[in-house]
């Protein structure tokens, strides 16, 4: 037996002065963008792969397959390569060339492009590839207990790190974004295991991908007719049953912001903290501005309150995309005055100054 390989890492918990100033409380960023695959998905998907290998014996010939052209596909390939196994990804024709190149660059055996939609690519994987290839292992993106268990490891890290810099290890709230709800379910399980199931959680989505919010409003698990947000990593039309169940707990709140707000979160984070993340992650940063956090949590915040934002990361971002969003959505900076004591309020193009 070889020594245990690390499929994910302990990430830093960084207190952001600029975001704290904007939000009116202490903002701690859990830097999941620094995971090996560029997002928190390394935790859950990495754990899924390790668990599978332990349960089935490390069979030669095992080949992992994901049907995500996004961060789940990247996480699958990165974890498989770390563990010494091949991985391939099946994606629809609409997947961006940049993401295909990134998935190939981290060592995918193959990136197979087929079908007009994710459903078609996923069906081809399940019904053709995995039927023909008995050594093929399907890797789900968010709806599996091993994935939640992997994601839950973020909670004891946060608590231990908070206890090193503050007088308590318990955050006053945790903010995370929701696609299919895998990350959210993992956080709930992590808090349960740590004996503090009542820590408030803000579950954030973008408008047009708000499958959790719509289910909560309907009072039942529903499927959105489609996705109408550029934050494609949040684009699950239906959240998992487990995520829906957890979201009905009284300490969980759901919030929805639009793509412009998510984009603002991305460019402000880039200017204030020199970190590049995709829209699915920027939407969490947006809560720090314009009183959004107090409104979403439904309570006044003090400068002593400690709020952890899970900076989930994501690879679907470039310098040009950031600049493009800042031009496209410039109006949002005019609509909303932000204190000029926050560095990013001074860096807008075209000299918008507040
Ligand atoms: C996958 C992903 C999400 C959503 O995670 P779920 O577990 O599907 O809810 C959020 N942000 C980023 C960057 C992601 O890659």
TrEMBL record:
<dbReference type="GO" id="GO:0006567">
    <property type="term" value="P:L-threonine catabolic process"/>
</dbReference>
<dbReference type="InterPro" id="IPR001926">
    <property type="entry name" value="TrpB-like_PALP"/>
</dbReference>
<dbReference type="GO" id="GO:0006094">
    <property type="term" value="P:gluconeogenesis"/>
</dbReference>
<keyword id="KW-0963">Cytoplasm</keyword>
<keyword id="KW-0456">Lyase</keyword>
<dbReference type="GO" id="GO:0003941">
    <property type="term" value="F:L-serine ammonia-lyase activity"/>
</dbReference>
<feature type="domain" description="Tryptophan synthase beta chain-like PALP">
    <location>
        <begin position="10"/>
        <end position="313"/>
    </location>
</feature>
<dbReference type="InterPro" id="IPR050147">
    <property type="entry name" value="Ser/Thr_Dehydratase"/>
</dbReference>
<dbReference type="GO" id="GO:0005737">
    <property type="term" value="C:cytoplasm"/>
</dbReference>
<dbReference type="Pfam" id="PF00291">
    <property type="entry name" value="PALP"/>
</dbReference>
<dbReference type="GO" id="GO:0030170">
    <property type="term" value="F:pyridoxal phosphate binding"/>
</dbReference>
<protein>
    <recommendedName>
        <fullName>L-serine ammonia-lyase</fullName>
        <ecNumber>4.3.1.17</ecNumber>
    </recommendedName>
</protein>
<keyword id="KW-0663">Pyridoxal phosphate</keyword>
<dbReference type="InterPro" id="IPR000634">
    <property type="entry name" value="Ser/Thr_deHydtase_PyrdxlP-BS"/>
</dbReference>
<dbReference type="GO" id="GO:0006565">
    <property type="term" value="P:L-serine catabolic process"/>
</dbReference>
<keyword id="KW-0312">Gluconeogenesis</keyword>
<dbReference type="GO" id="GO:0004794">
    <property type="term" value="F:threonine deaminase activity"/>
</dbReference>
<dbReference type="GO" id="GO:0009097">
    <property type="term" value="P:isoleucine biosynthetic process"/>
</dbReference>
<dbReference type="InterPro" id="IPR036052">
    <property type="entry name" value="TrpB-like_PALP_sf"/>
</dbReference>
<comment type="similarity">
    <text>Belongs to the serine/threonine dehydratase family.</text>
</comment>
<comment type="pathway">
    <text>Carbohydrate biosynthesis; gluconeogenesis.</text>
</comment>
């Amino acid at each position: 037996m070889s020594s245990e390989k690390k499929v994910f890492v302990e990430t830093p918990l960084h207190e952001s002065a600029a975001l704290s100033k904007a939000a009116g409380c202490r903002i701690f960023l859990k830097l999941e963008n620094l995971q090996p695959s560029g997002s928190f998905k390394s935790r859950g998907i990495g754990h899924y792969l390790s668990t599978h290998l332990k349960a089935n014996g490390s069979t030669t010939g095992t080949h992992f397959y994901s049907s995500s052209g996004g961060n789940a596909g990247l996480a699958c390939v990165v974890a498989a390569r770390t563990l010494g196994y091949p991985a391939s990804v099946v994606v629809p024709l609409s997947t961006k060339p940049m993401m295909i190149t990134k998935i190939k660059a981290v060592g995918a055996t193959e990136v197979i492009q087929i079908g007009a939609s994710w459903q078609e690519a996923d069906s081809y994987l399940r019904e053709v590839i995995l039927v023909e290839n008995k050594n093929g292992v399907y890797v789900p993106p968010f709806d599996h207990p091993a994935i939640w268990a992997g994601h839950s490891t973020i909670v004891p890290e946060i608590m231990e790190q908070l206890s090193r810099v503050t007088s308590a290890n318990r955050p006053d709230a945790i903010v995370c974004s929701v696609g299919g709800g895998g990350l959210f379910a993992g956080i709930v399980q992590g808090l349960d295991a740590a004996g503090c199931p009542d820590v408030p959680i803000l579950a954030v989505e973008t408008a047009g991908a708000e499958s959790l919010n719509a289910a909560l409003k309907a009072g039942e698990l529903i499927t959105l007719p489609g996705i109408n947000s550029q934050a494609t990593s949040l684009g699950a039309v239906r959240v998992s049953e487990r995520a829906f169940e957890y979201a009905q707990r009284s300490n969980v709140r759901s919030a929805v912001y639009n793509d412009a707000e998510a984009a603002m979160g991305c460019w402000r984070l880039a200017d204030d903290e020199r970190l590049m993340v995709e829209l699915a992650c920027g939407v969490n940063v947006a809560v720090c501005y314009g009183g959004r956090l107090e409104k979403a949590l439904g309570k006044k915040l003090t400068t002593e309150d400690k709020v952890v934002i899970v900076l989930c990361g994501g690879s679907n971002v470039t310098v040009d995309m950031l600049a493009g969003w800042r031009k496209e959505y410039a109006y949002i900076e005019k609509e909303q005055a932000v204190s000029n004591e926050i560095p990013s309020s001074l860096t807008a193009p075209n000299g918008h100054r507040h």
